[in-house]
Specification:
about 850 residues, alpha+beta, Aldehyde Oxidoreductase, domain 4, eight-stranded mixed beta sheet, five-stranded mixed beta sheet
């Protein structure tokens, strides 16, 4: 459920100390019995052991496992299919296989494009030498800032008392909306405030900040600020928002045909619903900003962990009331971003900049993990209500989906996220009659924001959910129904974009073959027949992901190339490095373009005074657009050097550079690129929102423990189309990383809020992220061969976001295993359709494995 009950926090899964003692006391008593311990006795033991327990399901599992382990002379003969209940559910260490295409024979050894060049900062990052924002040495007179945030989801601010905070040693000042010299209005939609004034709209809403001499003093002072509130009604969930009609402006419908389901005869109409929970970014480096005032003309330098240097610059300038040319934003690297630092980093940067402006001294702030999780939002939870029409053959003929997202207390990027969700509501399937609508719910939670996939994974999971239900209803294999409904080369999507270079069928067939899907499915069926309490499931899932910002003007990029007289090259572009290897790829692009070794090229940082007006590093397009801009800049340099190369054809790069310098030829050049022929209108359902699509297929096998709900990922095979890979090492790393992050989204990570809107899961002790044991025991990634993409730099394709959804193969493999568990139940109703919301946590898996124990748990729970 969305809410969580912490009254039994000391009893993990209902198995607290008293319950365990009761269980083992019962076991000791049973051992003294002279009769045979049978199912009837066990049922009595279970009932006694679980009486009055807060979560009886977990207690039943513990008692069942314990009593099955009793000696044979006490139990009688044990059904061999029940023996798996006694086996430890161990997860094997992962073993990887990575396949990619080698560069063509004859390619110059110095040409690193297509080669698995290691991440250029890998050694420094591994050794701890890489410099991140908070690693920058402290300035002599530097101050520390700590945010003061709301403890109410929706309330009027009656008073703010800082008297106790002022008594903390080292206290300098408290800043609030009253101190803003420019505009307190901020945000992508101009619907936010730098500091809340008069009213707060979520727990974690920034009201002010304290500034002190040290981080420790800042923390003490922030805790000492006293704020009184007058509570107002709060809206927390999507269901609350729907009931109270709390929405941002309605989004237009994404429609291919206006035909309703009832108008298409001869089909089966099936309604359904699916809820997909949110996700915390959990980047290793939390939000951090250092602001350094320059002391004249309003100049300020900011070192920020952000994906969006330009928005940081413009928001700070607007808040301070100065032109953007007075604000310099610099980014060396980030310790992860995943979309969480695209816009939300500005909530910290603007506060820190104001403190630096007011004090005239450098100010630093790095959020603690619990602060970061509380304040900055995450992936949008989605609720879908759908109706799908299909033939008995499994062919889907009509679809209507109503999408609802939980945006939180501001709009931020929620409209673009919903638009992308609507563009991906078909996933890979050609549906003749389709209608999708999106409503963005306005709630009293911290504003949700961009997250890898940007609404696409939620919509595609919904698509695969109703597709799996079609297969079950028709009694057909799921893979057969998916393949039957798949697009073909040249088909039009529901938003009327033609599919060109459609490699998905190749990915599908290669994945089926390499994973040995059909043979392993038969082996899993055999395993399920022989094991009552362990079940295995397989699923093969495709993905089609559109590449471009859906806001057309963002599809632009710039680059700056400086060539020094010693032949070394300093390269700058508009993208930021967050560990994804963008800088490494840009060096490879420049190396090939200039025909020089990568060792001669260096990228120091991203900054607003070298490449202005940048687009955020997002939407998986950064290599495409920045790479092309780098290429254009390098071509300008090469044209200037051409006369000197002709005069001295046997000379070296350094010779030509020196000759050009001595002839007073500029050795600096800019490059610019904009993606051509994109733009879409919801009103006319025309245009191309995407430059091209990335495709991939994953097949996963899991094993679930029907008594505990735990699962282990046995094997995953992925075939991914990344075009002609610029760097197979980085691309495969992105495929694997995206998959594991998606695995967290669909099976592990669950945010828990109280009914009052307070986030309980504020750190790794309460919020479960993927670990080494989450990685499939066999993890095989293959990059599709011979599939150059003519629409991107050096025939490559985007790779950051597209593979994430392939982790849905784990989700649906779990669902397949649950189906096997339910199939053994005498109640025929449990063999039909069932709803499994995301994430598929152990509790949800256990409860979905309907059996005599879950029924007993419901009975006991109903009586207690």
């Amino acid at each position: 459920s969305f809410y969580t009950n912490h009254s039994h926090a000391g009893c993990k899964g209902g198995k607290g100390p008293e319950a365990v003692i009761k269980c083992w006391a019962l076991r000791a008593h049973v051992l003294t019995l002279r009769g045979v311990y049978n199912e009837e006795v066990r049922g009595t033991v279970v009932t006694v052991a679980t009486w009055g327990q807060p979560r009886v399901g977990s207690m039943i599992e513990l008692v069942t496992i314990t009593t099955v382990n009793l000696p044979p002379q006490k139990c009688g003969k044990l059904d061999p299919t029940h023996a798996s209940a006694t086996l430890l559910f161990q997860k094997d260490p992962p073993a990887n296989v990575q396949l990619f295409q080698e560069v063509p024979k004859g390619q110059c050894e110095e040409d690193m494009v297509g080669r698995p060049l290691p991440h250029l900062a890998a050694a420094m990052q591994a050794s701890g030498e890489a410099v991140y924002c908070d690693d920058i040495p402290r300035y002599e007179n530097e101050l520390s800032l700590r945010l003061v945030t709301s403890t109410r989801a929706h309330a009027k601010i009656k008073s703010i008392d800082t008297s106790e905070a002022q008594k903390v040693p080292g206290f300098v000042c408290f800043i609030s909306a009253d101190d803003v010299p420019g505009s307190n209005i901020t945000g992508i939609g101009n619907d936010e405030m730098v500091f809340a004034k008069d009213k707060v709209t979520c727990i974690g809403h920034i009201i002010g900040a304290v500034v002190t001499d040290t981080r420790e003093h800042a923390q003490r002072a922030a805790q000492a600020v006293r704020i009184t509130y007058e509570d107002l009604p709060a809206i927390i969930t999507i269901e609350d928002a729907i009931a109270k009609d709390s929405f941002y402006e309605a989004l237009g419908k994404c429609t291919l045909l206006q035909q309703t389901l009832d108008h298409h005869g001869g089909h089966i109409a099936s309604p359904g619903e699916l809820y997909i929970g949110g996700q915390e970014h959990f980047y290793l480096e939390t939000h951090c900003t250092i602001a350094v005032p320059k002391g004249e003309a309003g100049e300020m330098e900011l070192f920020v962990s952000t994906q969006n240097t330009t928005k940081t610059q413009s928001f700070v300038a607007n808040m301070l009331g100065v032109p953007a040319n007075r604000i310099l934003v610099r980014v060396k690297r980030m310790g992860g971003g995943f979309g969480g630092k695209e816009t939300r980093s500005t909530v910290v940067s603007t506060a820190v900049a104001l403190a630096a402006y007011k004090t005239g001294r450098p100010v630093r702030c790095m959020l603690d993990r619990d602060e970061d999780m509380l304040i900055t939002g995450g992936r949008h939870p989605f609720l879908a209500r759908y109706k799908v029409g299909f033939m008995k053959t499994g062919r889907v003929v009509a679809l209507k989906v109503e999408h609802y997202s939980n945006a939180g207390n501001t709009l931020d990027l929620s409209q673009s996220i919903m638009e992308r969700a609507l563009f991906h509501m078909d996933n890979c399937y050609n549906i003749p009659n389709i209608r999708g609508t999106g409503r963005i719910c306005k709630t009293n939670l911290p504003s949700n924001t961009a997250f890898r996939g940007f609404g696409g994974p939620q919509a595609m999971l919904i698509a695969e959910h109703w597709m799996s239900e079609v297969a079950v209803t028709c009694g057909l294999p799921a893979e057969e129904v998916r393949r039957k409904n798949m697009y073909k080369e040249g088909d039009l999507t529901h938003f009327n974009q033609k599919l060109e270079g459609f490699t998905l069928p190749r990915c599908w067939e290669e994945c089926l073959a390499s994973s040995q899907y059909h043979a392993r499915k038969r082996e899993a069926d055999k395993f399920n027949e022989e094991n009552c309490w362990k079940k295995r499931g397989l699923s093969i899932i495709p993905t089609k992901f559109g590449i471009s910002f859906t806001v057309p003007f963002l599809n632009q990029a710039g680059a700056l190339v400086h060539v020094y007289t010693d032949g070394s090259v300093l390269l700058t572009h508009g993208g930021t490095e967050m560990g994804q290897g963008l800088h490494t790829k840009m060096v490879q692009v420049a190396s090939r373009a200039l025909k020089i070794p990568t060792s001669k090229i260096y990228i120091s940082e991203t900054s607003t005074n070298t490449v202005p007006n940048t687009s955020p590093t997002a939407a998986s397009v950064s290599t495409d657009i920045n790479g092309q801009a780098v290429y254009e800049a390098c071509q300008t340099i090469l044209k200037r050097l051409e006369p000197f190369k002709k005069k001295n054809p046997s000379g070296s790069w350094e010779d030509w550079v020196t000759a050009a310098y001595l002839d007073a030829v500029s050795l600096s050049a800019t490059g610019f690129y904009k993606t051509p022929n994109i733009g879409y209108s919801f009103e006319t359902n025309s245009g191309n929102p995407f430059h091209y699509f990335s495709y991939g297929v994953a097949c996963s096998e899991v094993e679930i423990d029907c008594l505990t709900g735990d699962h282990k990922n046995l094997r995953t095979d992925i075939v991914m189309d990344v075009g002609s890979s610029l760097n197979p090492a980085i691309d495969i790393g992105q495929v694997e990383g995206a998959f594991v992050q998606g695995l967290g989204l669909f099976t592990l990570e669950e945010l828990h809020y109280s009914p009052e809107g307070s986030l309980h899961t504020r750190g790794p002790s309460t919020y479960k992220i993927p670990a080494f044991g989450s990685i499939p025991s066999e993890f095989r990634v293959s990059l599709l061969r011979d599939c150059p993409n003519k629409k991107a730099i050096y025939a490559s394709k985007a790779v950051g976001e597209p593979p994430l959804f392939l982790a849905a193969s784990i989700f649906f493999a779990i669902k397949d295993a649950i189906c096997a568990a339910r199939a053994g139940n005498p109640d025929c109703k449990t063999k039909k359709l069932f709803q499994l919301n995301s994430p598929a946590t152990p509790e949800k898996i256990r409860n979905a494995c309907v059996d005599q124990f879950t029924r007993l748990a419901w009975e006991v729970a109903g009586e207690s």
